[in-house]
Specification:
The protein has 194 residues and is α+β, with helices and mostly antiparallel strands. Helices cover 30% and strands 22% of the residues. Strands 1-3-2-4-5 form a five-stranded mixed beta sheet, covered by helices on one side. The longest helix is centred in the N-terminal third of the chain and has 43 residues. The N and C termini lie far apart (60 Å).
Length: 194
């Protein structure tokens, strides 16, 4: 009996805890995939996520259980919750398309909406200055502002002159799955391009 207790406490209990932890993490990852796909499709079809009603729809219905907190009337995100969704409209500028502007030859962010906790994730696909983003998410002066450049997007997809891509990214953390002394929780990143 003593041997069984020692084996169970040193091997079976951690194994069971690990199975449950990673099982819940896989479920959350699948939910994040569905959320990113659904929100990206809606965004590409013209749903305006700069409005409070649509941000509430995302946080309460589409992201149910993921603890994404809707913004309070802005498009640059907040600092509470366990997740964030970043929506971007990108295009490739040429000299002909922007009259020899300084961002010609670059992929740029034309529109950026961040919903949720912007302090836990920063996209690597352009970071326009938040002061240059209008209340509906449009990036003013995207043709000349160097912070609107998103050339790393070319690693995912090649855009030709005049083409537009709609991208949804989500980053969801799972602090509830933390095991003290082992790891601080899991996180998942997903993206979808339309």
């Amino acid at each position: 009996m003593i041997e069984f207790v020692l084996i169970a406490s040193l091997f079976l209990v951690p194994l069971i805890i690990g199975v449950f932890t990673y099982g819940f993490a896989i479920i959350q990852s699948v939910e994040a995939v569905e959320l990113t796909s659904d929100v990206g499709h809606m965004y590409s079809e013209g749903v305006d996520f700069s409005t409070q009603a649509n941000q509430n729809l995302l946080s309460t219905n589409l992201a149910q259980g993921l603890n994404i907190v809707a913004n309070t009337g802005n498009v640059t995100g907040g600092t509470s919750g366990n997740g964030v969704v970043v929506l971007s409209t990108l295009t490739y500028l040429t000299n002909a398309s922007c009259n020899n502007c300084s961002n010609a030859g670059h992929v740029v962010v034309m529109n950026r909406i961040v919903i949720g906790n912007n302090s836990i994730f920063t996209t690597s696909y352009g970071n326009p200055n938040p002061t240059l983003i209008t209340t509906n998410g449009d990036v003013t002066n995207y043709d000349t502002d160097p912070t609107a450049q998103a050339d790393t997007f070319s690693n995912l997809m090649t855009l030709n002159a005049g083409q537009i891509a709609y991208m949804a990214e989500s980053y969801i953390t799972a602090p509830q799955l933390a095991v003290p002394g082992v790891f601080s929780g899991l996180a998942t990143y997903q993206n979808a391009i339309y």
